[in-house]
Amino acid sequence: QVQLVQSGAEVKKPGASVKVSCKASGYTFTNYAMHWVRQAPGQSLEWMGWINAGNGNTKYSQKFQGRVTITRDTSASTAYMELSSLRSEDTAVYYCARGGYCSSTSCYTGIYYWGQGTLVTVSS
Amino acid sequence: QSVVTQPPSASGTPGQRVTISCSGSSSNIGSNTVNWYQQLPGTAPKLLIYSNNQRPSGVPDRFSGSKSGTSASLAISGLQSEDEADYYCAAWDDSLNGVFGGGTKLTVL
């Protein structure tokens, strides 16, 4: 069965960076997209970006462009999301989520499986 | 403010049928499929409906989805107390950016 296991909670100071990991199992990692979605306390879900785990191509929400970097390590079946220049408004639970099947050039849209979430707290 | 709009709340009594709407535009819902997610308190979202009206295995057939034009709907029939949760619709825009609705909190009275 598909499993996405994320790294543990983080506390960061404003201006710092955070890197969250997401280890996948139960499927062929390089055949699918991996998305990152965040949820601030009491708020809705917010899509941040995705990576084609096969070829490494990425797409980011314009809101986070320049501050977010999504990467992957195919040998470890692990995806990473790094967010820089943190501010208090970035306090949220960050989820990785497996997307659709990817060909060599593109991926089907949709989000199908979710990690357990990682709480990132930004506080001075 | 999300570009995809849901009512903030909905409610029903056990056994009732409840519908949650999701309104977008021609650049998102109007040209791409819609997924629905259920989020129980303190847990990660779970896929409920994909490709507008398809249920993953394990999701009861009490849950159904539909789409027409730039709007989509989630229907829950035979409402149960364990259906009390937040429900989110999601779509993709023409630039392949993900878009979530603002979420609907369902209360079972």
Q: Summed up, what is this model?
A:
The complex is a heterodimer of chains A (124) and B (109). Chain A is an all-beta fold. Chain A has strands at residues 3-6, 10-12, 18-25, 32-39, 45-52, 58-60, 68-73, 78-83, 92-101, 111-114, 118-122.
Protein architecture, described:
- The complex is a heterodimer of chains A (124) and B (109).
- Chain A has 124 residues and is an all-beta fold.
- Chain A has strands spanning 3-6, 10-12, 18-25, 32-39, 45-52, 58-60, 68-73, 78-83, 92-101, 111-114, 118-122.
- In chain A, a hairpin with a 4-residue loop joins strand 7 and strand 8.
- Chain B has no helices and nine strands.
- In chain B, a hairpin with a 6-residue loop joins strand 3 (35-39) and strand 4.
- The mean pLDDT of chain B is 95.
- The chains are: A mainly beta (124), B mainly beta (109).
- Chains A and B meet through strand 5 and strand 10 of A and strand 7 and strand 8 of B.
